[in-house]
Amino acid sequence: MARAACFPTEDREKVRRALLNLFPEGEVEEHEDVIIVRTESGERLRQLIIDHHIRDTARSMMLCGRSGRVSSFKLNKQVAYVNKISFVEGSPALGAIDIEIEDEDIDAAIDYLAESTVEVRQ
Fold this sequence. Notes:
It is a single chain. By secondary structure, this protein is α+β, with helices and mostly antiparallel strands. It has a single domain, classed as 50s Ribosomal Protein L5, Chain: A (2-Layer Sandwich). It is built from five helices and seven strands. Strands 1, 2, 3, 4, 5, 6 and 7 form a seven-stranded antiparallel sheet that branches.
């Protein structure tokens, strides 16, 4: 699930587009001050992570945000609007996109979305 607050000074369509750039197959729910996209697929997010060569950073953020069967993290809203990806820490003034990934095997989901580039030596 991806959720973004839509402030009165923002263009709702641009916020909606930012969310759909990350999850184009998602179902959109529009509320008064928030837009939510729900999907079962993270394929586009995975591809953006690979294309921008940030698999280890993405993996680290997802692992740090892991709790039970959920991983939560934030992405930059303006960067998502231009089909790119940038992780956010804290609460930026213009808000962020809150991402929650839920899976019975959250570690496997993280492995799929952001496979480690570090070789494990035995």
